[in-house]
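Hey,
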Amino acid sequence: MKSNPPILKGTMVTLRPVSPEHDCIPFYNIMLEPEMHVWTGNTVPKNIGEIKQLLQHYAQFEEVIAWAVVRNDTEEMIGTYWIAAPTDVDGKKVISPKHSELQKNAGGKGILKKRVN
C-alpha cells in the first residue's frame, strides 16, 4: 500500500496529499481552462467522474508523489504538484522532473517557489 506524502507548509501555499473525494470538483474546474492543456497534451475533462478517476489513479500510483496545492489564506485548492517517487540508481537517490498544474491566475507569481520554508 502506498504511503501518503508529507504535508509541506509554506508561506503562501500548503502541499498536502491529493484526496480524490475532496479534490475532484476544484481540480475539475481548474482543468476546464483550455490554456492548461496547450503544452501538456492533456485534454479538457468530460466530467467530474473522469477527474476523480484520474486523481484516484495518481493517489494510488506507487511511482508518483501527488500533492494538492492549497492557498493558505483561503484554503482553496489551486492546482496539483507531482514528482516521480525517488529511486536509487547506483546507490544515489534520483528524483525525476516535476509537473504542476495551477489555476491560470496563480501562475507566474512564485507560489510554488515559496511552497516550503
